[in-house]
Design a protein that fits this description.
The chain is an alpha/beta fold. Helix content is 39%, strand content 23%. The strands form 2 sheets. The protein has a 6-stranded mixed sheet with strand order 6-7-8-3-9-10, with helices on both faces.
Length: 263
């Protein structure tokens, strides 16, 4: 396995845009004490693709997201994000990569004391200090219109539904114009109709923005709807990666068990 100290060959931004993976996870392992949470995980995601990562609770999905963001360091292997190894990059390089990532948290994670408009504008205020107030408002209003929330900019998070809060979270995730979108349980806590609306919105945004996306979810229906490929994890390993049809045709016992559980 590749030690953390060994720097893999990065892809420059030009090659990333021309088809090289925006996300390249290379034999990543991670343990906490005696528990191995990730055990040689590898996959790639290019712009225009959505990889759904599924598995039981405790299989390392959230740890994987934290490694991609640079909040945790793998024990071995590499997380190459837009050509940078997040395990060995400097703090400045990691911060720069993070500005090119959009993240939708499981429960939207909106600021209760800020309006919808202020929540969406928050990354611009902190990362685009040269932007004029009028430009910032236009950018936020364009995104709110894109996610179907035109006219709701002055409302507080407590005054809108859970599905609308997810839409605000998506708008905020896109406000910096990222190359990568990370979605953590985007349909969790929503009724089937709202879940379907979020799935359709994610598909629409993916078509229009051509992002490299990873969605961590327990929702097989959602994964089947929005994902280009599905990676099913068990005991820290990717058991299978492919289309939904590939999963259905698999003779792996865990794959069959997982599909049967969800249906």
């Amino acid at each position: 396995m590749m030690p953390v100290s060994q720097e893999p060959k990065p892809a420059d931004n030009k090659s990333t845009e021309s088809g090289e993976p925006a996300i390249d996870i290379q034999q990543v392992t991670k343990s906490f004490g005696p528990q191995k949470v990730l055990d040689g995980v590898s996959f790639q995601v290019r712009r225009g693709e959505t990889l759904a990562v599924l598995g039981r609770s405790g299989t390392g999905k959230s740890v994987l997201l934290r490694i991609i963001i640079g909040l945790q360091v793998p024990d071995s292997g590499a997380a190459m994000i837009l050509g940078k190894n997040m395990a060995t990059a400097s703090a400045a390089e990691i911060n720069e990569v993070r500005t090119q990532m959009g993240f939708l948290f499981q429960h939207a994670a909106l600021y209760d004391s800020l309006t919808v408009e202020e929540n969406v504008a928050f990354p611009l205020v902190h990362h685009r200090k040269d932007m004029l107030d009028s430009e910032r408002r236009d950018r936020v209003n364009d995104l709110l219109k894109e996610v179907g929330l035109e006219g709701h900019s002055n409302k507080m998070p407590a005054d809108i539904s859970g599905g609308m809060q997810k839409r605000v979270g998506l708008a905020r995730a896109l406000v910096l114009g990222p190359s990568i979108l990370l979605l953590d349980e985007p349909t969790a806590g929503l009724d089937p109709i709202s879940s379907g609306e979020i799935d359709e919105l994610v598909l629409k945004l993916q078509r229009e923005h051509q992002l490299a996306s990873i969605v961590v979810t327990h929702d097989m229906v959602s994964a089947k709807t929005i994902a280009t490929r599905i990676a099913l994890m068990d005991k820290g390993k990717v058991v299978i990666e492919g289309s939904f049809d590939d999963l259905q045709k698999s003779d792996e016992p865990f794959v069959s068990q997982f599909l049967h559980r969800d249906f």
